[in-house]
Known about the structure:
Shape: elongated
Number of helices: 10
Largest sheet: 2 strands, antiparallel
Strand order of the largest sheet: 1-2
Radius of gyration: 21 Å
Helix content: 40-55%
Amino acid sequence: MKIEELRQELRETVTVARHREYQEWTEPAEEDIITDDDVEIIGGELFVVNKVKLERVIKHLEGIPDRLEQSLSETIEDLMASKGIVKNSDVYLRANIDRKLFSSIMINDRIPKKATLFALCFGLKLTRGEAGKLLATAGFLFSKSLRFDMYIEELLIRKIYSITDINEILRDARLPELGSINMLDK
Length: 186
């Protein structure tokens, strides 16, 4: 497919909204919700006076570390392994991001900007689903209200992984480029 045809098709497709993906979230039991009746203002500070509820909330919060999922760096390592990528340089060069930034993400478990994660998605040659999981690991998601996100999503769906072609399409759409020096997390 020629780049012009692809650009036109992307322009048409990006305007179509697709359904959103939501992660499951469960409400706490009603007896565990702290209400106005459970608190009191003493000396200008808010205190929970219902100690039973407070203890249940604290116990629940203490269990959070047991429920944590993989870190960003662990997720990237797993994706690299599943794709047969052995060298880090294969990822950061394809993503057109700085080696130091990539190392900071992998060693210090630094959460980069969303645009940097998008570049990594292309560097790792991820599917749309894999990209969504990588973004979620860092606390992001694809937004249906941002043109930039919708373009990235469409490019991933179409498996266009050349950062040069991607940046040309983004530039034509007057959107920020990926991997460019001005988007790096410094």
